Amino acid sequence: MVDDSDWRLQGQERYLHGVTLVRRRYRAYAENPSWDHDHCEFCQAKFMVEDHPDVLHEGYATIDDYWWICVTCFEDSLAPGRVETTIPDRLAHGHAESCRAACVSARFGTS
Questions:
Q1: What is the domain count for the chain?
Q2: What is the pTM of this model?
Q3: Structural domain of residue 98, as residue ranges?
């Protein structure tokens, strides 16, 4: 469980509050083709398509691929009271196996 003094918490709830996140392989932000990487919004781990040491290739992204969160930070942020999650009905009814990415609606911030 992450407490409020964790160094990774820098007010991300201001822009991540209520976003829908999708777990998927990293892909570059389509709106700016010159970007070759992104960083986790919490720990600054690097995401890239190419293979390099210490680079992540999968994580949680907003629908538009603008914001990325690594799996570790996402799982850490699931502490009670920090993130409220719901799994959309289409996934809760056994369709997750046929979906390439699992969608999670996440409301960031404390309740």
A1: 1
A2: 0.73
A3: 17-108
